[in-house]
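Deliverable D5.2: sample structural annotation.
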Amino acid sequence: MTDKAAAGAADTVGTTDRAGAENAPDATDSTGAMRMNSTGATGRTGTANATGATDVTDTNGTAGATGAAGATGAADTNGAADGAQSPDRAGGAGAPPSPGRRLISVDVARAIAVFAMFAAHIGPPAKPEGAGHLLVAFDGRAPAVFTLIAGLSLTLSRGGARPRPGPPPAGAWRSTLIRCAVLAALGLALTELRSGIAVILTFFALYFLAAEPLARLGTRALTAVAAVSVVAGPVLSYVLGPFFGYRVVGRGRYPGFEAVTSWSGFADALDTLLLSGAYPWLTYFPYVVVGMALGRLVDLRRPGAARRLLGWGALATLAGHGLSALALGPGGGREVLLRAIAQSHAYAVNTPDPVQAVLNRQAGAIPSTSWAWLLVDGPYSQTPFETVANIGASLLLLGLAVAVCRSTVLAALLRPLAVVGTMGLSVYAVHVVARAELHPHHGWPALGAFCGVSLVACAVWAFVFRSTPLRRGPLEWALHALMPRATGPAAGRSRRP
């Protein structure tokens, strides 16, 4: 499927008052970046973004709530690489990397997902020939990467591998509700442009709302929920499909303004968001939970983080695609699917690839005509095997970005790319509008133009507004401005136990 979109870049603010490391698990925004102001280690500015990160304690004891699905601010100006040592906070030669900088590596990974999204919407067909092999590798990955990073960033905003103790600050739920409402409204508005893109922002609003209570779980419980959801979500989607009229066809939708203009439209939107949509909660929320668990299990600023991510990523990718191939081939799954297609999907029988022809009619989701559909791993199929493989690909991308960004020189070279990753909400919204208004022809020229304009525009914006709140990006700043500040005793609590 080509018209798939994913957004979820992070809402962050770059700082120039500390030369510390970027890979900080402490008070982080949705890109995973922690910011410290000139008053010292206890002054943390509140952040959040498309990942839904919230309530990072600031210097006056209040917790700042910021916007979701957006990215604010350019990366920090000194070009410090992931894991670099801060001279003013280092405890000696054996001290761990200092927490004090945003994660350029996460910004870079997110920007690559942005460009993969562009490729799906305006690029050439993903064919295994020449440069098309790269498009094949990313086909169907962008929503998964964005959504997983959203969960990762939410955990990082609350302390990462060392979560802040105690209850959340007062007003945390109110901030979450406002953030989700704004995201949903923006998603509905972009959908009404009829760009042909399955706008994901409204789905993200539901993800963040559901993630709020899970953020309070312990690491083991959160990891268990993540593991179970990867299988349970797709299985429930398959089981529930017939009860809601989606046994053969009908999935892959996305809600518009009718969701708020009538009760019937609202009920239909709930169906779409939970079960039958292009990015339904049942099959895409597991990426959020996996990202949240990942933030607890891996300290991205540690030297071994890249190796762990790459190792886990390779294992998950091979498991997802390899086990699917075994189940469909030697296991006889494909023959079962062909029989199901002959019985329930006659239109696909004489096509070159009957299985893919059926999936195309479902916007990638599987029908509920045979349990064997749960064995496929194609792009957007929303099965356990595809989910595991997409998680693996996301970890590989993150691990590679973390490894590369440990070099100060390479991190500096990737800085323009990282800036795109920090302004994801604005970039996403503009690209939807541009496709709706300009109707670009799919191909390499259009893809190159969109990527090039994004790089230049984000860099210019970050430079021009570097000393103002607008450095967050236009939509990111607006979303941040709408967020209330949480109050209460918990708001001023230090994140360290």
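Annotation notes: The longest strand covers residues 56-57. Confidence is low (pLDDT under 50) at residues 1-79, 85-100, 488-497.
The annotation will be released with the project's public dataset once the embargo ends.
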